[in-house]
Amino acid sequence: MSHDCRFRSQHRVKRGDDFRRAYDHGLRRDAGVFVVHAVANGLPFNRLGLSVSRRCGPAVRRNRIKRLLREGFRLTRAQLPAGMDLVVVCRLRADAPRDRPSLGEATQLFQESVPSLARRLWAGSDTPAPIDSES
């Protein structure tokens, strides 16, 4: 069985309204230097939004963090419950010791945080969880 692992535009949270909805109405899980916000999106797949501010360091460091998070999401997407917008906020500080998140930490973030957020999200909803059509 072949699974499309590409990270297409449709899998991204791009609009400010969608970010705001995740922050204001979604569930939140603190995962060390990252915070994951999740909100139902009504789609048969998950979308990922990233917020990595300048406080996290220079552009090279911020871009590396975003690449790792996108890759972690892309690799774990097939195993995650579908139908959510996930917004990951990085809380690394530029003045902190040179913490460098790894790909393993990024995949672990999604494998541990998203299923528990999904359980809480669908437990508090009358709408059943969508079926993932990508698998």
Can you describe this structure?
The chain is α+β, with helices and mostly antiparallel strands. It has a single domain, classed as Ribosomal Protein S5, domain 2, CATH 3.30.230. It has three helices and four strands.
Keywords:
135 residues; alpha+beta; Ribosomal Protein S5, domain 2; 4-stranded mixed β-sheet; 4 strands; 36% helix; disordered C terminus
Topology of helices and strands:
Blueprint: H1 16-25, E1 27-31, E2 34-40, E3 47-51, H2 59-76, E4 84-90, H3 103-123
Parallel strand pairs: 3-4
Antiparallel strand pairs: 1-2, 2-4
Helix pairs in contact: 2-3
Task: Give a short summary of the structure.
With 135 residues, this protein is an alpha+beta fold. Strands 1-2-4-3 form a four-stranded mixed β-sheet, sandwiched between helices. It starts with 15 loop residues before the first helix and ends in a 12-residue tail after the last helix.
